[in-house]
Design brief:
572 residues; alpha/beta; 8-stranded parallel β-sheet; 16 helices; 29% strand
Length: 572
């Protein structure tokens, strides 16, 4: 017999017994009056009465008036952006999250295979399970040449903690050959998943995308979710710092039910992590949108465990890992107790675990060194066509489009007009194989900004982006260089706010509470420059992101998302 059978049969005592609770059976989507019996970090049995399993050394937890559920699983997140997870994971645990499935879109574009290996190493001893996906970005060649090694990235799929290929924007994969196909083929051979990023993808294009990907988290309407499920794509609803799409989940749930939807944060940034919560927030929002509590919890437990083939997780069935939550109010999803692998790590507002440190390789702390030559920020007047040039029009959220502007000419160059909301925008290449140079164009939509903002925390691109005017633009980039990555806000040559993200240029290794304060300081300082955008920081960092339409930045020019080509300042 294995070690669980004698306990299940009542012949040996358990290590832990949770009594008198309403236990969620996610397979049935119902709560039942059961006890939970745990031995050696696994569930041994779910008897109606676990008295026989209680011995002299057994820990007994009374769950009267509470529900007992599996630990929450975040089906899609980005723990290598904004804040090192080893310094922040305890907040996720307090919200009931015992497992995360993360992209490596922060470390991966710069460091490739090593980025994945370092993330796995940094999180390997945490009392929370971290599974990763292989970043496809180093192999993407839509706008810039690919810089990754396909064979080495593909070999990562043999790692037990790597569950598949990370999110691929549909424009890179639909209707064209791509170096990423080797990753997809290996994933399917290994029985692992391919994550899609299908914003704006529908109809025949979505059907083509469905031949590649297994899940997608970009549905913003109920119809989007239904269309994905109809095409065999597992839908992942999200509620976090990027978006709240739980209304779409609630709408689709009425037609497709619970089995084909998982829940995720898609990233919970430091301020929201501290002030709001983690997967407890997502489950609560799903319930508020009409999803039955048992179904909402299934979407955050059994569904992602099955989709990503996470062994012995997502359920309290005998044999599974004892990741267990006690919740005293299903309306607020108030988690009172968290058990990770049979050990109580949070109980009645007291956490028994703490932030941890990890020493990254030296070059992770020195990954930002881009050019600050004044020529990098200069736009010669002769690129204009009758005084007019192409520019990005920032609209809202992650969305930007194309417009035409007529900058003022001074000393043979085109300059910003901040009083009119016309700013310069620069993207410089900080990849280890890059030369630190890039492209400078124009952007509207951020308001009458007097000064500049620069950051190395840009999406899916190893770059430093700066937005603003005059010498402040170059000064902001210089300060990001000096910090080894981060955010800098500059006015009249003075740095008025800073946030260092020195781990791979994209993660703060400060205490998460300090990072959250500095994020607020950066946003406040940017507003003091004159921006009137609702969420300016997300607007800036996503100007490089090709996953949403329609005009973005590359190191060589503007990236026209729909035509899948680089276009310059001169209008055609």
């Amino acid at each position: 017999m294995n070690e669980l059978q004698p306990v299940a049969l009542g012949d040996e005592p358990a290590d832990l017994v949770i009594r008198n609770g309403r236990v969620l059976m996610p397979e049935l989507c119902e709560f039942q009056a059961r006890d939970v019996v745990v031995k050696n970090n696994r569930v041994a049995a779910l008897p109606e009465d676990g008295t026989e399993s209680i011995g002299d050394e057994t820990t007994v937890i009374n769950a009267s008036d509470r529900v007992v559920t599996p630990g929450f699983i975040d089906a899609h997140t980005h723990i290598d952006l904004h804040q090192t997870f080893e310094n922040a994971y305890h907040y996720a645990l307090e919200g009931g999250t015992t497992t995360v499935v993360t992209e490596v879109s922060g470390f991966g574009p710069t460091f490739g295979v090593e980025g994945v290996e370092q993330l796995l190493a940094a999180t390997s001893y945490l009392p929370i399970r971290v599974f990763a996906t292989v970043p496809p970005q180093p192999l993407i060649d839509t706008f810039e040449p690919a810089r990754g090694d396909a064979e080495s990235l593909t070999d990562l799929l043999g790692d037990a903690r790597v569950v598949g290929v990370g999110e691929t924007d549909w424009i890179h994969a639909v209707g064209r050959d791509s170096p990423t196909e080797e990753l997809y083929e290996r994933a399917h051979l290994e029985g692992k998943t391919v994550t899609g990023h299908g914003a704006g993808c529908s109809g025949e294009k979505l059907q083509a995308f469905a031949t590649i990907v297994d899940d997608d988290h970009e549905s913003i309407t109920g119809e989007d979710i239904i269309e994905r499920v109809e095409n065999g794509i597992h839908a992942v609803g999200r509620c976090g710092s990027i978006r709240d799409d739980m209304a779409a989940v609630g709408e689709a749930y009425e037609e497709v039910g619970a089995a084909e939807i998982s829940l995720s944060t898609d990233g919970m940034w430091p301020r929201e992590l501290i002030g709001e919560g983690y997967m407890d927030v997502v489950v609560r929002r799903a319930i508020e949108e009409g999803v039955a509590p048992a179904d909402a919890i299934r979407m955050a437990t059994l569904n992602p465990a099955r989709h990503f083939d996470l062994p012995n997780l997502g359920s309290l069935a005998p044999g599974n890992i004892a990741d267990i939550l006690l919740i005293d109010d299903l309306e607020t999803v108030n988690v009172t107790t968290v058990i990770n692998g049979g050990e109580v790590v949070y109980n009645n507002h007291e956490t028994t675990v703490a932030p941890r440190s990890y020493e990254y390789p030296d070059h992770f702390y020195d990954s930002v060194n881009v050019s600050t030559d004044p020529e990098e920020f200069r736009v010669p007047a002769d690129v204009a066509d009758d005084g007019e040039v192409r520019a990005i029009e920032y609209r809202e959220g992650l969305i930007s489009g194309e417009t035409r502007v007529r900058p003022v000419v001074e000393d043979g160059e085109l300059v910003a007009a901040p009083e009119d909301g016309l700013l310069k925008v620069t993207l410089l290449d900080r990849h280890p194989d890059g030369d630190g140079t890039g492209f400078t164009g124009f952007v509207t939509g951020f308001g009458p900004v007097e000064g500049a903002v620069a950051t190395s925390l840009v999406w899916e691109t190893p770059g430093v982006l700066a937005l603003g005017s005059g010498e402040d633009l170059r000064r902001a980039v210089s300060h990001v260089n000096e910090m080894g990555g981060g955010w800098a806000v500059v006015r009249d040559g003075d740095v008025v706010a800073e946030l260092p993200t020195r781990i791979a240029g994209v993660c703060s290794d400060l205490e998460v509470e300090e990072t959250a304060k500095l994020y607020t300081a950066i946003e406040s300082a940017f507003r003091s420059l004159g921006t009137d955008v609702e969420r300016p920081m997300i607007g800036i960092q996503t100007l490089t992101f090709p996953g949403v339409p329609s005009l973005k930045l590359s190191f060589s020019g503007y990236a026209d998302i729909f035509s899948r080509e680089i276009v310059g300042l001169t209008p055609e």
